[in-house]
């Protein structure tokens, strides 16, 4: 069953592997870059699976948080219309 996961990260050292992590995020069925280091992805994978897959990309001092936000209440400000529309198309509880 497809769910929407929020993937957030802090890559701690200069010259980090942002490109590789972003490539990984974009391999999912759907994705949107919501904030600088926050993405929403559509996937059948669990939060643990996605987290574990990022461990092969990030360094041991980096941080990653994967949260299942399927049907979670959401409100936002300052996002592009394109991102807002993307969110609204996936959430029953989305509010602008």
Give a brief outline of the structure.
By secondary structure, the protein is α+β, with helices and mostly antiparallel strands. It has helices at residues 18-25, 47-55, 81-88; strands at 3-10, 30-35, 38-43, 63-68, 74-75, 94-95. The strands form two sheets. The chain has a four-stranded antiparallel sheet with strand order 2-3-1-4, covered by helices on one side.
Characterization of the model:
With 96 residues, the protein is of the alpha+beta class. It has a single domain (3-70), classed as Alpha-Beta Plaits (2-Layer Sandwich). 26% of the residues lie in helices and 31% in strands. The strands form two sheets. The chain has a four-stranded antiparallel sheet with strand order 2-3-1-4, covered by helices on one side. The longest helix is centred in the middle third of the chain and has 9 residues, at 47-55.
């Amino acid at each position: 069953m497809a769910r929407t996961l929020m993937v957030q990260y802090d890559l701690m050292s200069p010259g980090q592997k942002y490109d590789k992590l972003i490539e990984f995020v974009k391999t999912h069925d759907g994705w949107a870059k919501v904030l600088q280091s926050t993405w929403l992805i559509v996937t059948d994978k669990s939060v643990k699976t996605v987290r574990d897959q990022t461990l092969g990309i990030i360094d041991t001092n980096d941080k990653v948080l994967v949260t299942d936000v399927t049907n979670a209440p959401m409100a936002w400000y300052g996002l592009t219309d394109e991102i807002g529309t993307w969110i609204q198309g996936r959430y029953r509880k989305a509010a602008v």
